[in-house]
Amino acid sequence: MTMMKAAVFVEPGRIVLDDKPIPDVGPQDALMRVTTTTICGTDIHILKGEYPVARGLTIGHEPVGVIEKLGSGVRGYREGQRVIAGAITPSGWSTACLCGVGSQDGAGTAHGWKAMGGWKFGNTIDGCQAEYVLVPDAMANLAPVPDTLEDEQVLMCPDIMSTGFSGAESAGVRIGDTVAVFAQGPIGLCATAGAKLSGAAMVIGVDRLAGRLAIATKMGADHVIDAGQVDPVEEIMRLTDGRGVDVAIEALGTQQTFEACLRVLRPGGTLSSPGGLLDRPDDPARRLRRGPRRPQDRHHALSWWQRTHAPADGGDRSAPSRSRRDGDAPLQARRHRGRIRALRPPARRRSEGRDHALRRPSPLHAPGRRDRGLVRGHRAN
Fold first, then answer.
1. How far is residue 44's CA from residue 50's CA, in Å, rounded to a whole number?
2. What are the respective helix, strand and coil percentages of the chain, to the nearest 5?
3. Per-residue pLDDT band at 257 (split at 50, 70, 90)
4. pLDDT tens profile 33-51
5. Distance of alpha carbon 188 from alpha carbon 245, whole angstroms
6. Number of folded domains in the chain?
7. What's the pLDDT score for residue 277?
8. Is 204 a domain residue?
9. 179 and 45, same structural domain?
10. Radius of gyration over every alpha carbon of the chain, rounded to an integer in angstroms
């Protein structure tokens, strides 16, 4: 068989199932036979013409499958092995990758950097909504799937789970921190789990849907707030005795949730935005710069999911589902934005009065990077 079926972008408003040649395998590549994949909000934006891609491109960037063929230079994997590939597929050797910024991979450029260069599937190369997908630089971008896990249980790992975990990691959550996570869709739920696993003493989940809030308590939230019933800012300030949180994670990407995160931060706290705010916020935090999400997060995600959700009795413990009805698409539409880091205006010097006293760190912590007033986030990597 030399041909395969693939979901191909034809023009805005039109994606068709068409025949395409099965890709040839280069020395560092792996050909994956896709067994399970899903639709991301980014794919919806491509369909609507809101994000431009080449006509004839296969869309999709979240594959689970089996290695059909390996390039001659690939080591550590075998044909027939179950794997996932990350939504971000950097080369692993460019200047950006060596600096830990794989999402901005500039392999082949003079300086080794390219904005969003790590996002290739369904953007600059054929993606995974097809029978087969070619994974470039396979040793940097594959992760084995344990035999104890089903496809559906690891489907979130190539993108959703690693993005949520990275939201907590980018914020530098530390032991004893208080963390608020605004929006408990798939990314927000994973950010909630990531914050708890990072050592947060109190995790507060915010959403308007009771079902999501119920899942949030299972994923590590100590308190949940129904934003449709109470003002989440007031409730968070009440729970923290007026102090505010050390870290606020914004997992929706709207002006309203971004501003709410800023309002609940303690002085010098950190805002991490995996939701990827697109609108320019009416706030001093306007100087935005993209940065990394680590591709190896998908390995951590697989390991955590296997430890905590592999069924001991043969029952089904699937990852959080993605539902259009629950409004998950907006969470995904901004996934490839890179880490956002916005600097607040400089603090006054000690000699300039009381403002300086407001920037003292938590007594639990020695002064660190978070106490400089950084607002951090990322898109998908």
1. 9
2. 30, 20, 50
3. very high
4. 999 999 987 898 899 998 8
5. 17
6. 2
7. 62
8. yes
9. no
10. 21
Q: pLDDT digit string (tens) for 325-359?
A: 333 333 333 333 333 333 333 343 333 333 333 33
Q: How far apart are alpha carbons 172 and 238 in whole angstroms?
A: 24
Label residue 110 exposed, middle or buried (CB < 10 Å: 0-12, 13-18, 19+). Answer: exposed
The partner residues of 202 in beta bridges, in order of sequence, read 178
Which amino acid is located at 8 in the chain? V
Contacts of 225 (CB under 8 A, 6+ apart): 204, 205, 206, 207, 213, 232, 235, 236
Mean pLDDT of 158-168: 91
Side by side, the strands of the sheet bearing 202-207 are: 223-226, 202-207, 178-182, 245-250, 265-272, 374-376, 341-343
Q: Is residue 302 assigned to a domain? A: yes
125 and 205: one domain? Answer: no
Which positions ≥6 away from 216 have C-beta within 8 Å?
Answer: 181, 184, 188, 189, 192, 205, 207, 224
pLDDT digits (tens, 9 = 90+) for 273-298: 987 665 544 443 443 333 334 445 55
DSSP for 219-246 reads TT-SEEEETTTS-HHHHHHHHTTTS-EE
What value, to the nearest 5°, has the Cα angle with vertex 108 and ends 107 and 112?
55
Range of the domain at 367: 159-376
Kindly tell me the number of DSSP H helices and DSSP E strands found in the chain.
11, 14
Kindly state the average pLDDT of the residues 105-132.
95
**Section 173-190 average pLDDT:** 96
* Least confident among 103-117, 172-186, 231-245, 328-342: 328-342
168-183: b or e for each residue (b if 16 or more CB lie within 10 Å)? bbbbbbbeebbbbbbb
Q: How far apart are CA 203 and CA 337, in angstroms?
A: 25
52-56 long-range Cβ contacts below 8 angstroms, 24+ apart: 53/9, 53/122, 53/123, 54/9, 55/9, 55/10, 55/11, 56/8, 56/9, 56/10
